[in-house]
Amino acid sequence: xxxxxxxxxxxxxxxxxxxxxxxxxxxxxxxxxxxxxxxxxxxxxxxxxxxxxxxxxxxxxxxxxxxxxxxxxxxxxxxxxxxxxxxxxxxxxxxxxxxxxxxxxxxxxxxxxxxxxxxxxxxxxxxxxxxxxxxxxxxxxxxxxxxxxxxxxxxxxxxxxxxxxxxxxxxxxxxxxxxxxxxxxxxxxxxxxxxxxxxxxxxxxxxxxxxxxxxxxxxxxxxxxxxxxxxxxxxxxxxxxxxxxxxxxxxxxxxxxxxxxxxxxxxxxxxxxxxxxxxxxxxxxxxxxxxxxxxxxxxxxxxxxxxxxxxxxxxxxxxxxxxxxxxxxxxxxxxxxxxxxxxxxxxxxxxxxxxxxxxxxxxxxxxxxxxxxxxxxxxxxxxxxxxxxxxxxxxxxxxxxxxxxxxxxxxxxxxxxxxxxxxxxxxxxxxxxxxxxxxxxxxxxxxxxxxxxxxxxxxxxxxxxxxxxxxxxxxxxxxxxxxxxxxxxxxxxxxxxxxxxxxxxxxxxxxxxxxxxxxxxxxxxxxxxxxxxxxxxxxxxxxxxxxxxxxxxxxxxxxxxxxxxxxxxxxxxxxxxxxxxxxxxxxxxxxxxxxxxxxxxxxxxxxxxxxxxxxxxxxxxxxxxxxxxxxxx
Length: 633
Known about the structure:
- There is one protein chain.
- The protein is α+β, with helices and mostly antiparallel strands and 633 residues long.
- The chain has 17 helices and 28 strands.
- It has a five-stranded antiparallel beta sheet, with helices on both faces. It has a five-stranded antiparallel beta sheet with strand order 10-9-13-12-11, with helices on both faces. Strands 18-17-21-20-19 form a five-stranded antiparallel beta sheet, sandwiched between helices.
- Helix 2 (42-59) crosses helix 3 (61-70).
- The longest helix has 18 residues, at 42-59.
- It is globular, with a radius of gyration of 25 Å.
- The two termini are 20 Å apart.
């Protein structure tokens, strides 16, 4: 991306590039399949579309079209599949599958120009000439709300009865910079429908306000009814646990930990767990506790979420919580809706799906078969992900690991604990596991643990579900180490040299998010760091920062007589990729780059993230050279 100003793009060059499907490195549908009703994240959409592409290949277009219209697996609410001919304009692109309006199928779609610039179908045509699959960003009518909104779709190039085509599906998100509508995301909605998804949206939208306005967000959060409704309230606190802002106006700011009992008595609410440090290290974390609910007149289980943001250069935590309805289970969609193997795990949501499948497997099979399977079947065990089971007893000497693939010798031994757990987050891991299980029956535990891949102690998030094991209380669990959280961006693991040597979308995202964390911390002073520190540049991998307001390069790039706007216009055919990142918070860019040594144009894949640096919106990103079979001369 450092040499982006020298890019020369032509349609003929684009068409000449082909990329094999395997270059993406994505897992197949046999490893991760998800139904339409279980889709809630971009990762879900990606798995969903790849399964649909495999379905077309296996069953043919006639059966695929029927299934995409009629089967619940492929259509639910605002989630559906579409298939269109690859063409340079919507006026030339035949619609093959469009469930919201089948009358449009079999004829050209028509001109499709949205608020981000050129014809969307030209953008798809341009992108699929560079890569076999990828992300597109646009505005489109949402069938759930009846109005237009920003939509992120993943598309895969396919053959449709001899015609070059693409299949895709998208997601309307309510918690991104350009999507946080007050009538869609508010405390009243969370009170009426208390779910983790609605909690995430409320906290993330509130965090955007605090990130943008800093302490000046206080009047809005405290006075706008959007942020408070009954027992559901947004709050902000510092890293010492002192409340700074609360939509519950009767609270006195400056006191410790909002609503968590005993004047901030953490041992009473969280058994000694330092939830502030957990949220600081992991960026986002769930919290579980019991609290007196005035509406019911009794103590009730409560699920909260904390998100770390930097406001005017100071890290703070934004949070909210809801009371769990007495008849509501915290388990996610069942395994028939979201099947995944250990080797396909990439995100926290994948871990949750794996554990849900494992809990169902325990319920359906005897413990002897479960013990064998969790050790021997690759569905459950992978070098970076594995399922384990432990008895859920009061913390102390009696605790036992029942299934622990990394070390069988520790199974069934009375008094065996996970000695790799670091107590730097305060509070015993086993005590916290027991407390959260008693509170909600399933949930997330955040802690430090040895990473088998690196041999170092790193932050880990594990999801667990309480199960019955031969009449005894136990939990089945799995976890994930993430390398792009505030406390996990280790230079020896996330650096330009590693990305250059092993280019992948996951590695690209890790690198950019760690670079973005540098910018959030250092502001514009991060520019000299990116230039001088070899961690941030290697070959074609370099960090660039663009001022979203002026659209000028703030740091990175090369000297050129062409401004950044000229590069964007030429490389993306008129698509407003800067506006897209501002709206969606982060986005992939696909474009051509001259390879001086090879004397030809090659495709590059960039990932760009929006951050605030000293109050100024900056787009921070980098790119890797996409592996190809051929490239345009």
